[in-house]
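User: I'm writing a tutorial on reading structure tokens. Could you give me a worked example: one chain, its sequence, then its tokens, then a sentence or two explaining what the tokens reveal?
Assistant: Sure. Here is the example chain.
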Amino acid sequence: MENIADVEIIAPNFKRRLSGVTSTIIQLVPVQRRLGQKVATLGPGLPKTLPQIGFPALLRLWGRPKNRTHRVWHARRNIEMLPAIILRDILRMKLKIAFTSASQRRHTGWSKFLIGRMDAVIATSNKTAAYLDVPSTTIMHGIDRNRFFPPMDKTAAKAMLGLPADRKIAGCFGRVRHQKGTDLFVDSMIALLPARPDWIAIIAGRATGPHVAFETALKEKVKAAGLADRILFVGEHTNIPDWYRALDLFVAPQRWEGFGLTPLEAMATAVPVVATDVGAFSELLETGEDETGLLIAADGLEAMTHAAAVFMDEPMRARLAGERGLARASMHFTIEGEATRIGAVYERLLGKV
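And here are its predicted structure tokens:
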């Protein structure tokens, strides 16, 4: 446990279930610490390797940290904003509250009330910022270049995973469910692969609870199409960067998304991207002259099939898009850059004695 006297920023995580928010905390906090930000986590569901404080440490929040007028409580959910408001406004503890919003929908009255009580609000994209009724700072998520990078040898990258080294591979990664558009990817591959014997497709991710039947139906559809050996459901993996390095095309078929890191992960691995216009995808991808991928309307099977065919059938265009994607991710979307910009928000709130 960290000594609360040495902690300036508290990053609470009040949900045990792994989610995109939890993943963000897990990836970001070690980078923030390397950059000198005195941050510690609070709550369940996080690796023991992260710096943490326990709930009893909150009793010491009436005191301020050394050389600072306040601490910062960085909330990312409603259930993390409310306790901070109580600590600051009712118990009069020396706290400032920052909130990161990734939602791209109209907020409820309760959420608006909570957000309106924040000292600083961060939006993860310009689309997200447009749904806020308060001033905000847009700070987009970044990628860890120590994990996501191109392979030195694409053939070896495929062979390492037991994938056919002589085939090109289209991939779709993430939870298997209707919202994520897994069925659209499967249907597009069923349409494309018979005429392209040098390509296969992989779906990496798991189905949970009510979505298991959805996945089972997709597997049956693939089998009925005679493509069970070419459209592969490989399950969930902890070494997902290795799977990106085996790809020649990535498809992000989501029907809805808050932010969506998968296109960025593909770009950082020099893989061209086809993505629906949801979440932050339109702000991640570059289309037109400096193309890094193709953007299509959500829920459009015909458009997805056509866009995937473009990169499958034009290898030079695909290679150039991948190279530009790598350059764009490296220049504009690093996790160090994200942490630095968040640190600037903290500095405005912490105050100096």
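What the tokens reveal: The chain has a mean pLDDT of 95. The CA atoms of residues 70 and 94 lie 5 Å apart.
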